Amino acid sequence: MTNFINSLGIVLYATLAYTTPLLYAALGSCFSEVSGVVNIGIEGMMTAGAFTGTAVAYFTGNPLIGFICGGLAGAFFGMLHATATVKLGADQTIAGTAINMLGPGIVIMISKVVFSSTDTVPLSPSQKIPKLFMNLFDTTTVFGRFMDNVFATYASTYLVFILTLLVWFIFYKTRFGLRLRACGEHPQACETLGINVISMRFLCVCISGFLSGLGGACVTMAISTQFRPISIVGQGFIAIAAVIFGKFRPQGALIGCLLFGFCSGLKVVLGSSSGVNMQLLSMIPYVVTVLILVLFVGKSHVPSANGKPYIKAR
User: Fold this and answer.
1) Residue 314 has pLDDT above 60, yes or no
2) Which of 89, 95, 203, 288 makes an SS bond possible with 84, Cβ 3.0 to 4.6 Å?
């Protein structure tokens, strides 16, 4: 029984840790997709945020500045994507693919120049995103260790759950959210009501990039503490799958990210306690992603104007 509770605590801790970056990126994807712009460049934006956050935290010694700069790096690539798709009317899928190649290429080149390697120097404990509620429970008891695993997690984890509630409120309880959703459904009607569809979509794609950059920074400033070219591989697409599973709603994306985070947490526990090949266990989140897409992509209500470039009437 004791071993089961300990294992359960580790699974929950790993679930929260791996859910956090996915949820940041998924919330960003919600902003872009609901406004009517397909953004498959989430992965490239996360990679930019991962490197920038780690490098800035390393040189400044301040994880908060690094975390914010990671978001700004993602926002920069979001602005590039918005310029190409919203302003210039480029194909959104091709532009997103270009971001996924451009982002990693640029940061790996900078990493070689600054650190003489494609990897960054590992962060010290003071440069990492801090954990909250440390030493709050008596870890000499089974219950104390379980509660410590659940609650003594990174500050970014608590922040992303608060942010999910905030995004839900913005989407469904504010005028801005109403206009955002309308731009993804009936942009021509919005224009007749005086809503600037171009500006709204441009802003939402930039917000998407910022949140994706924060998600990337979480990976390298909390989970791995070092940027590597493979740090973000696949996570951007998993976040997009979570949004599809959640029917393009922030509350649905939360459930999807928790599911994928649980799969990753289960992989960690099984990998350390079973004789199953680690490469097979690493496939679990990606296999679940494919199954989710096969089972739910046809049932999701995609915004009517999603993926369709909007050309303002003259």
Assistant:
1) no
2) 95
Cα(first)–Cα(last) distance of the chain, in Å?
70
Rounded CA separation 2/304 (Å): 52
What per-residue confidence (pLDDT) applies to 220? 93
User: Is residue 4 scored above 60 in pLDDT?
Assistant: yes
